[in-house]
């Protein structure tokens, strides 16, 4: 039955495997929420399904359920009122560990087929999940649909494809024939069984509750590990819907549904994440979130392989441009998108004090700053577009950080653009903020070399582009980064920037002026994070992300 | 020039890549020390080269040399008298780190070609290295030549092939074309650069100074990391010769020779390994040795990815056999080989108290024990064969452990076979010991569930084969193991044993009665260690062993 699923989805898997190798554009799930792609009633049905979850108990199929909890609040201004099951991990984890055997024994193809079926069903729920992502993360609907739906599904498929490719790198069986000169050869029959490493824990974040959860979930699942998802307390619903879909597919296949489970804190004031992460059954951990907790996981969970994505300081180096307008438009969108709450949003923009050369002639530092400020304001002048692009501020603490950063900015530099509170056309209570821009001198490293999560960016006045490169390199090396962008018309300068990015280990985007943005990465082509600077110890996805999630156990005997 | 090396060795690389995928027999370097393979004077020349090293200073090309040290003693009874350079790691490591750029920039194929050339040259020094391994590890010459020479080289090639395969999984460049409906597509040019993670440290052991060093060395080197080898103080020469050969090849290619370096303790009483392992430049560590130090590395070197092979308790389950003679002969050789000083030698042999069924009729526990004791004694009755197979005891502490194990055995069980001190026909001072066999009841877990490194084995009297399986499973899970062997004529029993091996995560050898032994593993076909029990956190070699040693750094721009 599971084998049928593998055959059913084989073409999609092959296309994904091909995309990994070529890294050309590929997407398995339509990114447009158009009725032509998802059906005439998909939006209405998805919204209804989302609303049907509100103020009710959400059911999952797990041993050891003890009660229920949950206190999510939409950043758009209302309580979700959903209660999810709480579980006794002393019952759940041994049961999940027990399920390893059956999950191992169905084999590589059956597991892969099941993962692909789960992704297909998740895709069919893209609108429902999109609204769930919107009302937990605060993203605008279009972004919540795309990044939380098809783009996240693509990242999940990418992880499945990498995992499958790594698992079939060795054959399931082999005959070994060693010549012995004149004598008969030695002949051995061997089997090689892929075994997961244990129970896998995936710790989600509040801003991208599916996009940052699916890669770890599917990478661990396809390689033979039961997976327990621990969503962020503020973003449970998108994970819960995904887990429920996985459980449905597993049950239909005659497998224990709790091979994919979810644990939440019975009391958010007393998180169970540390206890969960140090359980002996847990051999794999994926985490997206703050640096102190990521570091704690890396340093204290010796029984597990730990994959982390943590804080960082993303940078842009502006040296010169032959398309000033395109650059400003590109950066205006980049800084506005989801109010800078992406782990890929640039925080520090380095500009020489003497200004830059452009196709519009020389521009002083202040003129560049002013153009960016105006560009953002103009871009956000349409309230509907502002509502869609900015979305809401996920957490109150981020909202407050904008105000404290403004105070700091006034003290140590100049506030180039105020972060105002636009009104959301559809949700009057939505917590909206526009980007704050602060100009500072390069010596104010204490301020701009620390991650200030949210729509807060520094325009840093440097002595020269060489100085900008030096500071950007330092930001990556010492504070981590997932993205670096640059603008220059000089090949020599670009070469220096490329070397800095390579040496520090960060993905570089060069002269983006059209419809590709430094904070966006495309599954199957762009590696999200490199794993070689403090912002992350792994990349989504590459071979290193999957190869350590399983082991090969061999047996041999004389033929 | 390096590209030429890649082309030169491409056929060998392709054969290795094919072997990894098929896991059929393959060996790139002749395992027979025959003049037809290595030349008429190879043995004499190799022995002369080995002797020329004695009582002299060994030169290596590294920045920061401060003096010299070294106090190796051959287990065959003489001092080597070789002095090796000591270095200031505050000078060496930054220089190695600096060399990362050039080592990265020459690219995947050039690095691969250089690694293959180093292996070819090492192969040409197989006799010299064989004698060096013999007179540090104490192995008999034939084993020192094979395991320390061609078999180690095969493991090195295996690591190179895996590393190469992992690196070319992503293309070096790609064009990404995303359709935009009626509009022009978005087109991006992308590059993907493989970058090593930093300086790699390889910590060698005294018993297999090349076999356990080459996989880590070549896996890290080919993937772009300069490598510093820290050999065991008792087994420096084989590593030093290998490092020198690597330096020669690097220098010829116009590269800094210290891309491969060696550090030894200026004072063996004050090892520098911990300091070295915690250096910020060091991002990869490979270690073979004792469990406490392996655990220390895993728990304290957070800046590095750590690969360890540690202690374990290997087991044999004897249930029944249709070839009693073959079983006894096979186990006699297995326990004798290198006096049980292999990380793959069985320590615990589980036999039901009620005896076993065989092709020679029922055999009681005592009859099986007696047959094994006699089998070993008969096998070692030829002094030259005994000298060749047993070799010498590498460390005095192992010698003493045999005596204390004998005392313990007498107290808690029965000494079935005494470990005597055969005289080596060629080296009268050689520290030789034959296998000690102790019969104990199954409840003496305190004794037999702890690794007693050396020629010490327990015949454990169990209630039944089911009990044997339970204990063997426990040994792997709680104490680690690299090998498990079993003998049974029952498919049902074999199925139970296979499930136990799979669940605990250990390689299983079934009914070995002919020329393949449980303690031997063949490169390109057998995975050495699984990485999923306490004996090792990695396998030599698989994708997981190489995929985490490099990162992919991308850049992108509009086409």
Share in helix of chain A: 40-55%
Strand order across the biggest sheet of chain A?
16-17-18-13-12-19-20
Distance between the termini of chain A: 32 Å
Supply the CATH class of the largest domain in chain A: Alpha Beta
Number of helices of chain A: 21
Largest interface: A-B, 69 and 69 residues
CATH topology of the largest domain in chain A: Aldehyde Dehydrogenase, Chain A, domain 1
Please state the structural category of chain A.
alpha/beta
Largest sheet of chain A: 7 strands, mixed
Number of domains of chain A: 2
**Oligomer status:** homodimer
Compute the number of strand runs of chain A.
Answer: 21
Integer average pLDDT of chain A: 97
> CATH-wise, what's the superfamily of the largest domain in chain A?
Aldehyde Dehydrogenase, Chain A, domain 1
Quote the beta fraction of chain A. Answer: 15-25%
Please identify, by name, the CATH architecture of the largest domain in chain A: 3-Layer(aba) Sandwich
Low-pLDDT ranges of chain A: none
Radius of gyration of chain A: 25 Å
Which shape of chain A, going by the Cα principal axes? globular
Question: What's the arrangement of secondary structure elements?
Answer:
The structure is a homodimer of 559-residue chains.
Chain A: H1 2-22, H2 35-38, H3 42-53, E1 65-69, E2 73-74, E3 78-79, E4 84-87, H4 89-98, H5 100-105, H6 107-124, H7 126-137, H8 141-148, H9 150-167, E5 173-180, E6 183-196, E7 199-203, H10 214-222, E8 227-230, H11 237-252, E9 260-262, H12 273-277, E10 282-288, H13 291-300, E11 305-309, E12 314-318, H14 324-336, E13 346-352, E14 356-358, E15 361-363, H15 365-379, H16 383-390, H17 396-412, E16 414-417, E17 436-441, H18 445-448, E18 456-462, H19 465-479, E19 483-487, H20 491-504, E20 507-510, H21 543-547, E21 550-558
Parallel strand pairs in A: 7-8, 7-10, 8-9, 10-11, 12-13, 12-19, 13-18, 17-18, 19-20
Antiparallel strand pairs in A: 1-4, 2-3, 5-6, 6-21, 14-15, 16-17
Helix pairs in contact in A: 1-6, 1-9, 3-7, 6-9, 6-11, 7-8, 7-11, 8-9, 9-10, 14-15, 19-20
């Amino acid at each position: 039955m599971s084998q049928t699923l593998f055959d059913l989805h084989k073409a999609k898997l092959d296309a994904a495997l091909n995309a990994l190798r070529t890294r050309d554009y590929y997407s398995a799930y339509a990114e447009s929420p158009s009725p032509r792609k998802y059906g005439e009633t998909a939006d209405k049905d998805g919204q209804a399904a989302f609303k049907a979850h509100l103020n009710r108990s959400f059911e999952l199929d797990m041993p050891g359920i003890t009660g229920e909890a949950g206190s999510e609040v939409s950043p758009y201004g209302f309580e979700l009122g959903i209660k999810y099951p709480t579980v006794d991990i002393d019952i759940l984890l041994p049961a999940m560990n027990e399920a390893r055997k059956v999950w191992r024994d169905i084999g590589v193809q059956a597991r892969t087929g099941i993962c692909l079926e789960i992704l297909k069903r998740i895709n069919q729920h893209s609108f429902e999940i999109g609204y769930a992502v919107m009302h937990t993360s605060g993203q605008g609907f279009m972004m919540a649909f795309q990044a939380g739906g098809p783009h996240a599904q693509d990242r999940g498929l990418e992880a499945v494809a990498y995992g499958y490719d790594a698992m079939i790198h060795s054959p399931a069986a082999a005959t070994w024939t060693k010549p012995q000169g004149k004598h008969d050869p030695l002949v051995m029959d061997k089997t090689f069984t892929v075994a997961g490493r244990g129970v896998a824990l995936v710790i989600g974040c509040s801003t991208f509750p599916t996009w940052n959860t699916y890669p770890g979930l599917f990478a661990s699942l396809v390689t033979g590990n039961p997976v327990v998802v621990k969503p962020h307390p503020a973003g449970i619903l998108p994970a819960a819907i995904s887990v429920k879909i996985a459980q449905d597919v597993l049950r239909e296949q005659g497998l224990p549904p709790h091979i994919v489970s979810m644990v939440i804190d019975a009391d958010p004031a007393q998180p169970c994440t540390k206890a969960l992460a140090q359980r002996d059954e847990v051999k794999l951990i994926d985490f997206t979130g703050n640096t102190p907790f990521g570091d704690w996981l890396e340093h204290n969970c010796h029984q597990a392989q730990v994959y982390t994505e943590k804080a960082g300081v993303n940078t842009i180096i502006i040296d010169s441009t032959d398309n000033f307008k395109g650059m400003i438009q590109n950066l205006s969108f980049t800084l506005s998108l989801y109010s800078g709450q992406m782990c890929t949003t640039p925080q520090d923009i380095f500009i020489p004090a003497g200004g830059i050369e452009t196709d519009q002639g020389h521009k002083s530092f202040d003129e560049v700053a002013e153009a960016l400020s105006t560009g953002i304001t103009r871009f956000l002048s349409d309230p509907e577009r502002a509502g869609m692009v900015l979305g809401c501020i996920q957490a109150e603490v981020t909202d407050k950080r904008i105000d404290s950063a403004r105070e700091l900015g006034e003290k140590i530099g100049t506030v180039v653009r105020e972060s105002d509170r636009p009104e959301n056309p559809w949700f009057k209570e939505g917590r909206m903020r526009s980007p704050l821009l602060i100009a500072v001198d390069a010596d104010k490293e204490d301020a701009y070399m620390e991650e200030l999560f949210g729509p807060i960016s520094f325009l840093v006045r440097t002595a020269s582009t060489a100085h900008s490169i030096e500071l950007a390199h330092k930001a990556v090396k010492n504070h981590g980064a997932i993205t670096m962008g640059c603008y220059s018309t000089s090949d020599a300068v670009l070469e220096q920037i490329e070397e800095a990015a390579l040496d520090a280990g960060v993905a570089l985007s060069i002269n983006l002026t059209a419809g590709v943005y430094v904070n966006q990465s495309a599954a199957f082509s762009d590696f999200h994070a490199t794993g070689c600077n403090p912002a992350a110890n792994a990349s989504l996805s590459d071979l290193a992300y999957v190869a350590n999630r399983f082991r090969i156990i061999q047996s041999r005997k004389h033929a």
